[in-house]
Write a structure and sequence with these properties.
alpha+beta; 4-stranded antiparallel β-sheet; 17 helices; 6-stranded antiparallel β-sheet
Length: about 550
């Protein structure tokens, strides 16, 4: 059985170099990316030129500008950095199919059985560094048997443990005291350190198979992916390297520093497994047609679209997907582009359902000097199954009914959405509440099914309802003989009821602080049928109110 080998790639200047790639004018000046931390602006990523000026990550912006007046800064964009890291993940797929992101600046690659394809691990790392140099990126790498060890070698190999001024270490005492101390070894007096067995070339960033403990022994405890406070506490106790920490009983570490420290230590040493979970492959459905001569007529554009839609349908059907939103991109001869988007009420790959929506967008297309390339992309898709087999007969019959249902309403919603937007088309759905104004709620028509079997109320509800409006009438629980509403005086000719509705006791609704309501259907002498109720009083005084009108 082959030993598991993990490659960790760390891009310490990812955010800064991403912006440098886009703007070449910053290359000759110190450049930094600024972010907000603890209500202060600090440097979060630096270019190599900025680091050479003595700046460091985490430094306050005002101190950095005082040290380097020519510093150029840009605001951090974590979302754009995450998208760029995803692009690097796809690039790293050339080395192994098992690649995972390690936000915000790293990648983890399982190289087991893949390194020999590049001539060995050292040659593979050289290829990765060469590719990153061509991309204008700084990269540090580490290879070991575990994820934690590779992560540590990529970031801390060759770095000495930092000193913490606790007063206990000999190198922190006065010179006279140190002079009387025992004679130190050569490398402790500034000489070259002895060779470390088990660590190969490239600055000690490739640990030989089975030599994880030896490779990590001299690294600082911060290389275990622990928080800064825990690392500082360990250093104060004299446990500055991972080798110092390995000899301490696990129970003692867990009792003093908690289980996370023990977990990270065991993961780095391979005693606790840690999986590399690659990102799920993203479906990409796009077709393109390059034209020999620029076109500008609507008929020519539709002819090109008719050639692209069958190919797009083929790709969607192969993956069992249906398009929800499509993007039509028109590339003009003057190197400009126009984008048109359409949405569908129900996912589909059928050209007969997509084509009418694109026809509605022809008026928005500006051909300019001519269109020489057309591209259609289904950037939002959903699974669509032509047949769905279930164990229950009723479920299977329901699926078949849905598949054979009329699609004209969905097509109508899609066409209206192409004009006014799908988000503006809604439908009512029943809600689980006995409160009149809460018996239904609005949902987007394109992302919902029509409601069936609406629950019937105990008594008829008015066609139009509004917020309760005060009614001037005697403060009695029976229907008034006469009342005044909206500046008009009315006489009661008929009344039916009451229907008593209590407020939801677990919610505090401002409209229902008047307590329990008795609803009446009141017919006035003007011919209007109103929905009045008498509130018995609660947190607020009660009385008569009008909430709706029947047809």
């Amino acid at each position: 059985m082959s030993i598991r080998r993990i490659l960790s790639l760390w891009f310490p200047r990812l955010a800064a170099e991403r912006l440098l790639r886009a703007g070449g004018g910053y290359l000759d000046a110190p450049f930094a990316v600024v972010g907000d931390r603890n209500n202060a602006q600090v440097l979060v990523s630096l270019s190599a030129r900025a680091s050479a000026e003595g700046l460091r990550a985490g430094q306050p912006l005002r101190d950095a500008q005082a040290m380097c007046p020519g510093l150029i800064t840009r605001l951090a964009n974590p979302h754009a950095d995450a998208v760029f890291l995803s692009a690097l993940r796809r690039w790293a797929g050339k080395f192994s199919p098992w690649v995972a992101e390690e936000p915000p600046e790293g990648l983890i690659i399982d190289l087991t059985g893949c390194a020999h394809l590049f001539g060995g691990e050292a040659e593979l790392v050289s290829q990765a560094e060469l590719d990153c140099a061509d991309l204008g990126l700084t990269v540090q790498s580490g290879i070991a048997d575990t994820v934690g060890a590779a992560w540590a070698l990529a970031r801390y190999a060759g770095r000495a443990p930092g000193a913490v001024r606790s007063g206990d270490a000999i190198d922190q005492e006065a010179y006279a005291t140190r002079a009387r101390a025992a004679k130190r070894r050569n490398w402790e007096r500034g000489g070259p350190p002895p060779p470390r067995h088990g660590v190969e070339a490239r600055g000690g960033r490739i640990a030989a198979g089975g030599q994880t403990r030896t490779a990590l022994a001299e690294l600082p405890v911060a290389a275990l992916r622990i928080d800064a406070d825990t690392a500082a506490s360990l250093s104060k106790l004299g446990l500055r390297t991972i080798g110092d920490l390995v000899g301490v009983p696990r129970a003692t570490l867990a009792r003093r520093f908690g289980q996370p420290l023990v977990l990270r230590l065991d993961q780095a040493m391979g005693q606790t497994p840690e999986a590399v979970s690659p990102a799920k492959p993203v479906f990409h459905f796009a077709v393109r047609l390059t034209l020999p001569d620029p076109i500008g007529l609507d008929e020519d554009v539709m002819a090109a679209i008719d050639r692209l839609l069958p190919e797009l349908e083929k790709r969607l059907v192969e993956k069992g997907r249906g398009a929800r939103r499509l993007r039509l991109q028109l590339f003009r001869a003057d190197n400009t582009m126009q984008t048109v988007e359409v949405g569908m009420a129900r996912p589909s790959a059928s050209p007969d359902r997509i084509r009418p929506l694109l026809i509605l967008k022809l008026d928005e297309i500006d051909a300019g000097y001519g269109i020489d390339c057309i591209r259609i992309e289904a950037h939002v898709t959903e699974p669509v199954h032509a047949r769905q087999h279930r164990g229950h007969m009723d479920a299977a019959a329901e699926a078949m009914t849905r598949l054979n249902s009329d699609m004209r309403l969905d097509d109508l919603i899609g066409r209206l959405g192409a004009r006014i937007g799908l988000e503006r088309i809604s439908r009512a759905h029943p809600a689980d509440s006995h409160i009149p104004e809460k018996t239904s709620h609005r949902v987007a028509a394109a992302w919902s099914e029509p409601a069936k079997n609406w629950p019937l109320p105990p008594t008829p509800r008015p066609l139009v309802m509004w917020r309760p409006e005060p009614v001037s009438a005697p403060d009695l629980p029976r229907p008034p003989a006469g009342f005044r509403w909206r500046g008009r005086t009315m006489q009661t000719t008929a009344a039916s009821g009451p229907e008593r509705i209590a407020p939801e006791w677990w919610l505090d609704e401002p409209e229902w602080r008047t307590g329990v309501r008795d609803y009446w259907q009141v017919t006035a002498d003007t011919g209007e049928r109103l929905w009045l109720y008498y509130a018995h009083g609660g947190a607020m005084s009660g009385g008569w109110f009008c909430q709706g009108r029947f047809a």
